[in-house]
Amino acid sequence: MMLKEILKDCDYTGRLLQENESFMDIDITGIAYDSRKVKGGYLFVAINGEKYDGHDFIRDATKKGAAVVVMEKELSGIESGFILVKEGRIALACISNNFYKRPSESLTLVGITGTNGKTTTTYILKSILEAWGKDVGLVGTIQYLIKDRVYPAPHTTPESLEFQGLLREMFLSGCTHVVSEVSSHALAQCRVDGAVFRTAIFTNLTRDHLDFHKTMEDYFKAKKRLFEDLIDKDGTAVINLDDPYGKRLESELRRSRQDLKIVTYGLETGADIVASETESSFEGLEFRISCREVTYRVASRLTGVPNVYNIISAVGASISLGVPWEVIIEGIEKAEHVTGRFEKVDAGQKFLCIVDYAHTEDALERLILTARELVLPCHPSPAEGGLSPRIITVFGCGGDRDRGKRPGMGEVATRLSDFVIITSDNPRFEDPSDIIRDIEAGAAVKNYLVVPDRREAVTKAVEMAKEGDIVLIAGKGHEDYQEIKGVRYPFSDRDVLKAAIKNRFKMQIDE
């Protein structure tokens, strides 16, 4: 593709290659922002990363054959042609969108943002769209899907070059609809700029990622970009009206985006879509959805009030896309449990074990409260002389991330659980003992034990559990690794939990 086509509508301050008038007609064979991936005829975009500055690798890129370099600051001695831009990430997004022929304009793209609930909501919406007969692509935390083809997901929302490439591949594979998680990092770093979203969902906003955003206000503003800057002029915003930041977003958008359709949802009155009369058990959910004087009774295999919110947010998006109600209900019923999201692990034990991705104060609270709602068939009720199930919670906090949320998670876990085992999550380059001390500082009561080794912590919880108890393993969910000192070691909460259960009962049999 010619350089002038790749730079169409991009904001660059000028081109510099002496007096060569044919510069803009250079044929570009590929794009890279990592100098290691540059090949002959490529365009290299220098961006400031979290650890490295791409400008430090420009000479490496030119040695490998970069025909053109896009950069924020002029450097001397560059043999390739170069373009100056104000912001490398914005330029990369525009260039990537053009290079992949603006794929979102040929797709119905739905974006989902918020602190919690994004992943599950993408799968519910995917199920609804597939029940409607659509071929669907998915971009998210667990994996990327092109129809039924599965690809690993290094990031919840990839860099703009990979994001636009994914959208292009989805279009070429026959997808008509794409459902994408859109992280606050991605919005702050312009990774989805240039994409046209038909519908966007706001799930909620609670403390997370303040190591990156610094303040809740900056965190909110990053999320707001999806709705203020990236939804199509005829698009729809679907907003959780029960969330304080959702209420604020709805109010501000009515002033700033008067062209936008807004659909609100919640469990309280005043929203456009309201869920009520909820019945929750481990077998699933049943509740009533009311929307514009129409009421439907729906059933789902998913569990707990947080999933009621996830379901009705997907309903709002589906309505905005014109999906018939009977199809919406069918899609909800078909939606299956998502890996690592309130996932039951059963190895024959007579107590309930759950693995969940909860890694924020709010998510951990919702997880424990959801567990409190459950009544196990094997457990006698208090009326029958039984005791309420004990909640045993195992969790830690990630290293090199928002330290401020650690005491809050310690407070929630100890206040709402019967017993807590504080352990490591992904310590990264931090000392696990420092992370654990931060968590302990918030403990509401001394009903906890510190076991730094996560495998030992999970095993201890299993050994403690009695018939009818509920063991919650929180924080890592679907992850299959533990990151320590820059190395990712194989580690799955699910697998470790299964092994601990089997070992406990094997030992009992042997005895």
Topology:
Elements: H1 3-6, E1 12-16, E2 30-32, E3 42-45, H2 58-63, E4 68-71, E5 81-85, H3 88-99, E6 108-113, H4 118-131, E7 136-139, E8 143-146, E9 149-152, H5 160-172, E10 177-181, H6 184-188, E11 197-202, H7 210-213, H8 216-228, E12 231-240, H9 244-256, E13 261-266, E14 273-281, E15 284-291, E16 294-300, H10 305-320, H11 325-334, E17 343-344, E18 352-356, H12 361-373, E19 391-395, H13 405-416, E20 419-422, H14 432-440, E21 448-450, H15 454-464, E22 470-474, E23 481-484, E24 487-490, H16 493-510
Parallel strand pairs: 2-3, 3-4, 4-5, 6-10, 6-11, 7-10, 11-12, 12-13, 13-14, 18-22, 19-20, 19-22, 20-21
Antiparallel strand pairs: 1-5, 7-8, 8-9, 14-15, 15-16, 17-18, 23-24
Helix pairs in contact: 3-5, 4-10, 4-11, 8-9, 12-13, 13-14, 15-16
**Structure annotation, total helices:** 16
Strands, count: 24
The average pLDDT is 91
In the CATH hierarchy, what is the superfamily of the largest domain?
A: Mur-like, catalytic domain
Strand order, sheet with most strands: 9-8-7-10-6-11-12-13-14-15-16
Question: Which features does this protein show?
Answer:
11-stranded mixed sheet; 3 domains; single chain; UDP-N-acetylmuramoyl-L-alanine:D-glutamate ligase; alpha/beta; Udp-n-acetylmuramoylalanyl-d-glutamate--2,6- Diaminopimelate Ligase, Chain: A, domain 1; Protein-Tyrosine Phosphatase, Chain A; 24 strands; 511 residues; 6-stranded mixed sheet
Notes on the protein architecture:
There is one protein chain. This protein is α/β, with parallel strands linked by helices and 511 residues long. It folds into 3 domains: 3-99, 3-Layer(aba) Sandwich (Udp-n-acetylmuramoylalanyl-d-glutamate--2,6- Diaminopimelate Ligase, Chain: A, domain 1), CATH 3.40.1390; 103-334, 3-Layer(aba) Sandwich (UDP-N-acetylmuramoyl-L-alanine:D-glutamate ligase); 343-510, Protein-Tyrosine Phosphatase, Chain A. Helix content is 34%, strand content 24%. It contains 16 helices and 24 strands. Strands 9-8-7-10-6-11-12-13-14-15-16 form an 11-stranded mixed β-sheet, with helices on both faces. Strands 17-18-22-19-20-21 form a 6-stranded mixed β-sheet, with helices on both faces. Strand 12, helix 9 (244-256) and strand 13 form a beta-alpha-beta unit. Helix 4 crosses helix 10 and helix 4 crosses helix 11. Mean pLDDT is 91; it is low at 377-386.
